Amino acid sequence: MTKLESEDQPAADRAYDLAKRLVLTGELPGGHLFSEGDIAKRLGVSRTPVREAFLRLQAEDLLQLIPKRGAVVVPVPLSEAEDVLDAREAIEAAAVRRLLRRPNRVQAAVAELWAALDAQRTYLEAGDLAGFAEADEAFHRTIVEVGGNALTLRFYATLADRQRRMSMRALRPRPEHQLVIMAEHEALIRIISSRDEPAFAPALRAHLDRTHRR
After folding, report:
1. Which run of H or of E encompasses 100?
2. In order of start, what are the domains of the chain with their CATH numbers?
3. What's the pTM value of the predicted model, to 2 decimals?
4. For 76-102, how does the pLDDT look when each residue is reduced to its tens digit (9 = 90+)?
5. What SS3 string covers 107-168?
6. Residue whose C-alpha is closest to residue 13's, from 38, 45, 37, 41
């Protein structure tokens, strides 16, 4: 987005986008307290649109408002993180099973996954960890998309913010693990390409274990 386009946005939307990005990338970590004034000063706006943005983020369980003090970034509880991983395993494995029951769709699906992996590689090469985490979520969402189940895809999309935060939390202290993730994503694509349905679920679980359950 260009500076001009950003300024054309309503102030509340600009405040929402900035605060949410800071939370999802981990620049504002779980438990961090910050004020409406911090965001207002960065954007050159009044506190009123920032307050509106904070209310939206509280509704999304990203912030907890503290009267007269500001907002605290809500951490992702360990129990919730495990719930997210379990849901991801079930949905992605089911998507691949459904895809492989339609052999005529596999080739196109594999092409989409290679494209998603190439997009993720550009962030790796640029040293953009936040972009890499966002592309990681997009890669796994593509697995669900190619399964062709609109209901599960809509539910899976609701996990996106949590996925990105979990990825940043896992990768920030060990950015070298990005190379492992890329290799494991490639392995997942090759399993789908070879139509080896029994191999996918354990490979996916091992992949998520190494990244998030270490």
Report:
1. helix 78-100
2. 3-73 (1.10.10.10), 78-212 (1.20.120.530)
3. 0.87
4. 888 889 999 999 999 999 999 999 999
5. HHHHHHHHHHHHHHHHHHHHCCHHHHHHHHHHHHHHHHHHHCCHHHHHHHHCCHHHHHHHHH
6. 45
